[in-house]
Amino acid sequence: MKSWRDSILKDFIPHVSRLTLVADPDCLLTEEKMGMELRDRGFELIEFNDPVEFRYAYESRFRSIWDRGEHTDLVVILRLDDADLESLPYDLLQAGRQLAFNLGDLFPSMSYPVIEKLDRTLLDKLFDAQHRLQPERMGDRATKDFILRHVFGIAPELITEDVALFHTLLRLHYGKVRMPEELADRLIEILKNDAFRSWPLSEVVPDDKAFFAFLQERWPVFLAGIKVDEHGIKTVSEKLSSFISEPLNLLYSGPAHLPFGHQDIRIYIDNLFLEGKLSPIEAQGMEADAGSWIRSGIVIPGHDDTDLRFSRLFELIEKEWPTAETRHSGWIAFALKWAELSSLVHCSCNESYQARLHGLGDTLNLCFASWLDAHYSGLSTLPPTQPAMLHHVPRRLAQVIEVSAKGRIALLVVDGLPLDQWVSIRPVLQAQNNHLLMRESAVFAWIPTLTSVSRQAVFSGKPPIFFPTSIHSTGNEEKLWKQFWENHGISRQDVVYQRGLGDGDVSALLEDLIHPGKTRVVGLVVDKVDKIMHGMQLGSAGMHNQIRQWCQHGFLATLIDRLQDDGYEVWLTSDHGNIQCEGRGRPSEGAIAETRGERVRVYPTPELRYRVAESFPFAHEWKPTGLPSGYFPLIAGGRDAFVRQGDKIVGHGGASIEEVIVPLIKFERKTS
User: Fold this and answer.
1) 106: how many CB neighbours lie within 10 A of its CB?
2) Is 101 left (phi over 0), alpha (psi -120 to 50) or beta?
3) Pfam families attached here (predicted)?
4) Does domain 6-106 have CATH number 3.40.50?
5) DSSP output for 559-607
């Protein structure tokens, strides 16, 4: 077999059975490529979580079709072992065939407790290695070593000097390769020898933030040991020199000098500074040619480096352009880079760079729209351990509560905050609290990117199909939030929700909301960004400026700090982003549109939507994925909007990358 998927797909022949029940404890059927293959074959996937929710979806979407004599290929997935299929309702057991799949069957020679921790995107490499090498039965340690070598490409016996270790860690952390804790521990165990005794392995191997902080404080040491002559840059064995304007204070143990200049290392360094993972430092008296690989890592007093950084970021973006085969995690990684460039451009107010960004963005969003058509429907059923969509976020937070009986969670939903505007306020938050550690990722919002759709998905932990009666409002958010946590064993009295925040006295707010030692879950809506957006007349540049000014007032930083003081694990996300648009005309459909937004119109039937779409060729009839019946969005494409011809606005509701991929940030406190 070419792939581990083939052994599963052979059981999914269209029209064999209208209902298939699958025990899938290892989330194999909802792996991104697997789910796409099943949907291409005509199968629809639905999870069995809550019996009431399932019954609603089952009866409304499938049972009614069967009663009309029509056929569907429905797959009901249970995240439990095959023995637990018997817990399904009797009518399902009678009507459907039963299947079961697990990692133990796919990888019989390996330790199941080890391989179950692997990210499912890594199974292809593991299956290929198993097929080529045909290993004998292995225990935990041998399985870990096999995976380190053949999946992560780490041959420990070849890591004998600092360059090899440095390169290995760069490859892992820059590529955001998710290594399970058990494998990281095994790698640390192997590396703990005389060569690396001084390295802080327990910190820099499993934690990318610690690794980049380790590099940041050693970058000045490296700069102090180089000089520039007429032939270029040459490393010399000097002590610290006058190049460094501030004294060193190494918080991490380990060698002070790292081989940044090695040919295997320096190919990463430029990108680390461009993408904000490392920060350039001021180097008095040092000069470097614009083409030098160290140039992005230094600030030369009196030199304006803006053009250089713009040029290199544009080059980086164009080099790493996503394709039709890119996974959702690849789009998220790209969106983070796109946000760095967008923030820099919008904050510069340079019209030529803004024009270049808009042109590149138009091409990007055409590519993104095509990718969404093929992949978006499969995102909702991915496991919530690494959230892919907004409704996964509370499920991920619930795992924290389940692990610790004393765990406390606070979720801040900053209404309307896109990734690029998060990048603009990030340094403000860092300056206001230098002990704040921010672990950055992103998730996909629900389309259409309306507050009533996407924000309710956050607080309910459900796709919009499960809140049809409130799909046009946000009035049920508190009820949905408390209901979600009650279903996870938390009393409603220990859950709070508050909206309409953004200014005022944080201490007074939290004293009124939180009962010390009792309140375990906090959900807060900060809607200041959305208010700024709806009054914005100065485009994206004005948005960045005003949001940064608001953040400087300190409400958000103080809120995060106070919640951490009270023992909460604090997360931040957004329900949707925003994009600068230009009007292409407003439909005159009277009362037939149930939602009349600037970037989306929603109709009760596909026929009414089609009638309007004929007159607006720039709009896209969005397939109602995960949406209730009678909800048919017509989405403006590109940077177009349903407003008066030529009017410029900042809006949301559409399917651009700026509106759909939103921040997901976990806040921690630095311990050193």
Assistant:
1) 19
2) beta
3) PglZ
4) yes
5) HHHHHHHTT-EEEEE-S---EEEEE------TTS-SEE-SSEEEESSHH
Q: What is the pLDDT of residues 537-552, one digit of tens each?
A: 778 888 999 999 999 9
Please, are residues 281 and 224 in contact by the beta-carbon 8 Å criterion?
Answer: no
For every residue of 227-253, DSSP letters joined together read EEETTEEEE------TTBSS-----S-
pTM for the model stands at 0.91
Residue 439 three-state SS: strand
* 377-580+658-669 CATH choice from 3.90.1150.10, 3.40.720.10, 1.10.340.30, 2.30.30.40: 3.40.720.10
* Domain 6-106 and domain 377-580+658-669 have a common topology: no
- Amino acid in the structure at residue 127: F
Q: Both ends of the chain: CA-CA distance in Å?
A: 50
Per-residue pLDDT tens for 159-179? 999 999 999 999 999 988 889
- Please say whether the beta carbons of 343 and 420 come within 8 A: yes
- Of 226-230, 433-437, 582-586, least confident by mean pLDDT is 226-230
**Would the pLDDT of 287 be above 70?**
no
Lowest-confidence segment of 54-58, 183-187, 383-387 by average pLDDT: 54-58
Q: Are 635 and 641 in contact (CB under 8 A)?
A: no
Give the separation between CA 256 and CA 240, rounded to whole angstroms. Answer: 11
